[in-house]
Amino acid sequence: MTDPKDKLLQAYNKMVDDLHAAVEKAEETLSPTIDEMLQNAEKLSKKAYALTQDEAKNISDHLKRDIASARKYMHVDGKEFKEWLNFDIQQVEDRFADFLSKAADKTWIDFRALEILGKKNSIYKTGEICSAGTLRCLDCGQQMKFTKNSHIPPCPKCHHTKFERVVK
What we know:
single chain; alpha+beta; 6 helices; globular
């Protein structure tokens, strides 16, 4: 039997793929809101991975948080996506880097809603899923770098469970 954490990570990756496909489709037609695209990706992943409503909602919330974080950093601070990731972009899976940069650039319709969500959910916790980038332990300051979508482990230094995204 597969590990339940693997199922959730696969579902997160599926939501990323589905949202990416929806963003591309939106370029050709009238643009749906990011929330509508995420709801569609959530439904597809829920069915494909037999997720509960809560599991699908949590994954969707994690993805919204990551998009809000990227968008805030890129547009408010005028930084590049590479700097937001805080390490060499070549280490990131190409499909996710491409998706997140497109999503951050093309979701201006719901920027305000994501900005509010980003403020509310800016703390990352052990067991959640996050996108590529760097997290810093809120207790000891230890940094953890992720090169792909991953489950967040406890801090390797102090074993605490709350983190923030590092942006330069």
